[in-house]
Design a protein that fits this description.
The protein is built from four helices and no strands. With 135 residues, the protein is mainly alpha-helical. It has one domain.
Length: 135
């Protein structure tokens, strides 16, 4: 058995943050139809409450992601690694931006588009993160 160390903490926090951010989006999306049955305002209230939890975990994911990069010698990595990292950073930025617009806009059409972009960008970031670890 390995000892619990700072690397274990760092990676655990990063995975936890990704779980809350991505998993929460999936769960909330699945709940929207039921929330609409409860009341017209229920989805908005649930989304606001989710945001209070999700945004700090998004920040934690970014912080621990930077910490992860500081713990490796990125210069020794392959070109494929650098390309994957660049794409991951772009989809993280797109997901965060789309999610912020989603939470701020009054337009249902824009909320729909940015919600989808935020979720798919978050899922893509998750996949690219796995590729960085095992690629």
């Amino acid at each position: 058995m390995n000892d619990f160390d700072i690397d274990t903490l760092r990676i655990t926090l990063h995975l936890l943050a990704a779980c809350v951010w991505v998993g929460g989006q999936i769960v909330l999306a699945a709940l929207v139809p039921v929330l609409r049955e409860i009341g017209d305002d229920a989805p908005r209230k649930a989304a606001n409450r989710f945001g209070r939890v999700a945004w700090p975990f998004f920040a934690l994911a970014v912080i621990t992601g930077v910490w992860n990069l500081l713990e490796i010698d990125v210069g020794d990595r392959s070109t494929a690694y650098h390309v994957t990292l660049a794409v991951k950073l772009l989809v993280v930025a797109a997901a965060g931006t789309a999610s912020a617009v989603h939470s701020l806009t009054p337009s249902p059409a824009i909320r729909g588009i940015t919600g989808a972009v935020g979720l798919f960008g978050s899922l893509a970031a998750l996949v690219f993160g796995v590729m960085l670890v095992w690629g």
